[in-house]
Design goal:
The structure holds 2 protein chains of 2 kinds.
Chain A: H1 2-6, H2 23-42, H3 54-75, H4 78-89, H5 96-106, H6 108-111, H7 115-139, E1 143-149, E2 152-157, E3 160-166, H8 170-199, H9 201-206, H10 209-235, H11 241-258, H12 266-269, H13 272-286, E4 288-290, E5 297-300, H14 301-313, E6 319-320, E7 325-326, H15 332-344
Antiparallel strand pairs in A: 1-2, 2-3, 4-5, 6-7
Chain B: E1 3-8, H1 17-23, E2 35-38, E3 47-50, H2 59-62, H3 90-94, E4 101-103, E5 108-110, H4 116-119, H5 126-130, E6 136-140, H6 141-151, E7 172-174
Parallel strand pairs in B: 1-7
Antiparallel strand pairs in B: 1-6, 2-3, 4-5
The chains are: A mainly alpha, B alpha+beta.
Chain lengths: 362, 186
């Protein structure tokens, strides 16, 4: 393989990396082993595996393979590599918790895009996250319920008795119905999103069926089949339960496998926006780059240099020999005026005047 | 028939119709994504438009850590995908022409997408549709070649992309002032 030819002579180290053929193999092995060890602990040595959920377990392992395939390739891109590396280094900034809650929990930036969009995203986003937090511990046996005393459920988490609650109490009610509640959240959110995609002209201009609608239909399908399961159990005395449970299981597994490759890929990948914010704030405090023409500070020195380097790896170089700067060293208005100067031959960027209003709203 | 945006810079009269039209394109959320500049603001009224030139090897997309800037099959370099853009602003630093705009509040970059909803079906982009002075035109390859022949004064003054731009672009530009002595019919 090409990779073996290009690889540098291997040093005589005993790094764990030498045991694996690739980063993918290593990540897969460690993750699956980790899950199995956690299952071993959580299920009290595999004595409490819920085999009814076996399909989800296999589906999850396939999902993990797809996830690593997609994201390792993506992480190898030069700009991505830089932001992941520096993001991890800056993870323990004071502002990280606040930024994380803002970007990943309350979605303030979506609020600014519109309150309707924020509402639908909050319902879908938290509906899906809470569903996962309930489902996967159940699938891997990290959480289960036992009834040692009649009328009381014991919640077992990671093999330890967490608490004993009355079977008709509030906590028990919320536990049975957690997935029903999240299903209703997702259904409302998806319906709002579908309505917007059908009616809003701004959304309609750019959407595609496969990219924008398919994930919504998948989420809707999961939520509705899940709710039908509850309906069958509560009102139909379990009639049709087994067929519906397979349909539901199938819908979840298909969505899981599809997740890293479509619009839903932004779920695992979105924490990077916290990295990006930390990156900009941290290096912005350290030193700012001054525009080579007007002297305004417009970006951190670090980011300016990183972008120049990244473009270098793509064999793009915007060094203007005759003017003695790289285009990345000009602030945006000066860079635009410099281009006008290149078009016209008159040095527009050197005229000391603020750029005219470029906003069509006046 | 594949058509391209073609910019004849010297025609610009500074009316800013292209900016206004840009706000009305579907998906642009009522904000314009292009620029009109005074060439020598204290001396005369010559203006020139500055659009995204849709580079064949776009620096903005190459520098995006999130792969949020996609390249359409027509060659148009699209605006950031809203769910992918992480707000790092690498693209604004990378772009040699300073085109991408960034919305701090929405934590989102937006740039010219050549009105992809229109141009993917061969309909001219909004700016070219409204330009009253034929600065922005929507032409076939043959028509652009004709322009090139007409402008070819054998003195390296015709440019489509190189060497006055930083790389090959999908939008073609001609330099102003090379038709001196030629009568121009609009």
């Amino acid at each position: 393989m090409a990779e073996t030819v290009l690889r540098k002579p291997m040093k005589a180290t005993h790094s764990i990396n030498n045991a694996f053929a690739s980063k993918f193999a290593k990540s897969m092995f460690l993750t699956v082993s980790g899950i199995i060890v956690l299952m071993f602990i959580g299920t009290r040595m595999f004595t409490h595996v819920d085999l009814n959920l076996y399909g989800y377990m296999v589906g999850t392992f396939v999902f993990i393979a797809g996830f690593f395939y997609r994201f390792i390739a993506w992480g190898e891109r030069p700009p991505t590599k830089i932001i992941i590396k520096k993001g991890i280094k800056l993870l323990f900034r004071k502002s990280t918790p606040k930024t994380s809650v803002n970007h990943l929990g309350t979605y303030e930036f979506i609020w600014n895009r519109g309150i309707y969009r924020w509402t639908q995203h909050l319902l879908i986003g938290w509906g899906v996250i809470l569903s996962c937090l309930v489902t996967f511990p159940l699938v891997f046996g990290w959480m289960y319920f036992t009834m040692e005393e009649n009328g009381y459920y014991t919640i077992v988490a990671m093999g330890m008795d967490l608490m004993t609650v009355p079977a008709d109490g509030v906590i028990a009610f919320l536990s049975y119905n957690a997935l029903n509640i999240t299903a209703i959240m997702v259904i409302i959110g998806v319906s709002m999103a579908l309505y917007r995609r059908l009616k809003n002209m701004q959304a309609r201009a750019e959407q595609k069926f496969i990219y924008d609608f398919l994930p919504l239909y998948l989420l809707l399908f999961i939520s509705i089949t899940g709710l039908i399961l509850t309906f069958m159990n509560v009102f139909l005395h379990g009639a049709g339960h087994y067929a519906m449970s397979l349909i539901h299981q199938y819908s979840v597994i298909v969505t899981l496998i599809y997740l890293p490759f479509g619009k839903l890929a932004h779920i695992p990948f979105r924490p990077l926006s916290v990295f990006a914010r930390n990156y900009r704030e941290h290096y912005g405090e350290q030193s700012m780059k001054e525009c080579k023409v007007c002297g305004d500070e417009f970006v951190s020195t670090e980011q300016s240099q990183d972008v120049v380097n990244v473009l270098g790896t793509n064999e793009i170089d915007f060094t203007m020999e005759q003017d003695g700067f790289n285009l990345a060293e000009l602030c945006l208005p000066c860079r635009r005026k410099y281009r006008i100067a290149r078009f016209s031959g008159f040095p527009t960027h050197e005229v000391k005047t603020k750029e005219a209003n470029q906003n069509a709203k006046g | 028939m594949k058509k391209r945006l073609y910019i004849e810079l010297e025609n610009c009269i500074g009316c800013r119709s292209c900016l206004a039209a840009c706000t009305q394109c579907g998906g642009h959320e009522q904000r314009n994504r292009n620029y009109v500049y005074d060439v020598n603001p204290h001396v005369n009224r010559q203006t020139m438009p500055l659009m995204c030139l849709h580079c064949e090897n776009p620096a903005c997309a190459r520098s995006c850590p999130a792969q949020a800037i996609q390249i359409h099959e027509t060659g148009a370099v699209l605006s950031a995908l809203v769910e992918k853009c992480i707000g790092c602003q690498n693209c604004t630093i990378a772009c040699p022409y300073g085109i991408p705009k960034f919305d701090e509040e929405e934590n989102l970059m937006y740039k010219c997408d050549l009105c992809i909803d229109r141009t993917k079906d061969g309909i001219p982009p909004m700016c070219a549709s409204v330009c009253p002075s034929n600065t922005l035109q929507w032409l076939t390859e043959e028509e652009i070649e004709q322009k090139q022949r007409r402008h070819d004064l054998d003195n390296d003054k015709w440019v489509t992309s190189m060497p006055y731009l930083e790389g090959a672009t999908n939008v073609k530009v001609n330099l102003p002032g090379i038709l001196q002595g030629t009568e121009k019919l609009f």
